[in-house]
Amino acid sequence: MSEQVLLDLVQAIALFFLNPVWLVALVAAVGLGYFRVKRERRSFLVRLHPGLTEMKRLLAESWLPALIVSVLISGIGLTVDVGWIVIFSAVAIFAMITFYYQVASPIYFAAIAFFGLYAFQQWGPDFTYSGWSPADVDPFGDMALTVPVIAGLFLIVEGFLIRHHTAAYASPFLAKTNRGLRAAAFKSKRLWLLPILLVIPGDLLSAIAPYWPQFTIGATAFSFLPVPIIIGFSQVARASFPDVLFPKIGQAVTVLGVVVVIVGALAWWMPILGWAALLIGVVCRVMLSILVAVRERKGGFAAAPQSTGVIIAGILPDSPGEKLGLVPGECIRKVNGIQVSNEKELYDAIQVNAAHCRLQVIGRDGEVRLMQQVLYRHDHHRLGLLVVR
């Protein structure tokens, strides 16, 4: 029996990593890095981060929030139907292959899966597969409580990830202004994978894996199922800087997640509030995306060219520019005492003193400060700066 239990455990791990969601997410993350590098090289002839950065951070930034959410779901005893998981995963896969990650918020997947399952119940109640039938699902019962609360928890995680892990990897690119000049905009397109442990009622899993761990409450059996959950994010910052805009978006999404959880929890007394919680989450998430996009398109470029110096669009990691504490949007007025107004003048001025570089920088707040940095032979010959040109 112990060998069978071990075999079931190995099978579960294998099924997780062979899950289509996981495999598509892996390929999509590689694609994100590839297209980002192409965009950066088209604008600056150099990439900001390695092409596999998105793939390496697919799970690295999300595993801890996923663990916390899994403990909460299991501890509270929130159960979901297998059919809901299947539809949720199918919608997530479709969103990933379109690369349109503005609609890759889990609140959309959760709502579509919930209402899709309800529609399936109305149109195909006699359908059965391996003992599962949509007729067994009660959209006005436990599902009306558990799905909105779980979706709200996913929104909270989405907000956390946006707030803490998008600005640092925003990708600069050059775009034309209304006056025909070139200014810098910043695009963050990210994908995260959360290995979530969901609770499934019934003995569907035990029919496939007889020794799969189960527990019972009364006459009902429950099983744990590891499911890869996808969260996507895509936003262009043009009128604002990424480190200002993206944390605000993340905070708004987190607040929305808390609201969805609270309204969804009230479905314990009034199930229709669970439906309302999902609709509130979807509508407010859509409105947030639209409002941010409209504001960024209508506003001018935050990193627009200036006659007083050279505007920084990005800083290469571990470069002298990063050690100096330079940030995108700042303006370099003088280098080694020489006034600069374009990239060539910046490079020529740096060569005046190849061992010790002195900068006069205008910050985003308009304050002027002096900075200096010792340069070594292996350092980037332009301080590791991507500039508006």
Structure, explained:
The structure is a single chain. With 389 residues, the chain is an alpha+beta fold. The chain folds into two domains: 2-298, no CATH class; 310-387, Roll (Pdz3 Domain), CATH 2.30.42.10. Helix content is 50%, strand content 20%. The strands form two sheets. Strands 5, 6, 7, 8, 9 and 10 form a six-stranded antiparallel β-sheet that branches. A four-stranded antiparallel β-sheet has the order 1-2-4-3, with helices on both faces. Helix 6 (106-123) packs across helix 10. The mean pLDDT is 88. The chain crosses the membrane at residues 12-37, 58-76, 82-100, 107-123, 143-162, 191-209, 215-237, 249-269, 275-294. Residues 287-365 form the PDZ domain. InterPro entries: PDZ (IPR001478), PDZ_6 (IPR041489), PDZ_sf (IPR036034).
The major β-sheet equals:
6 strands, antiparallel
Strand segment count: 10
What class do helices, strands and sheet pairing give?
Answer: alpha+beta
User: Globular, elongated, flat, extended or rod-shaped: what is the shape?
Assistant: elongated
Distance between the termini: 69 Å
* Count of helix runs: 12
Query: How are helices and strands ordered from N to C?
Result: HHHHHHHEEHEEHHEHEEHEEE
* Number of self-contained structural domains: 2
List low-confidence stretches: none
Helix content bin:
40-55%
Average pLDDT, to the nearest integer? 88
- Percent in strands: 15-25%
Radius of gyration: 25 Å
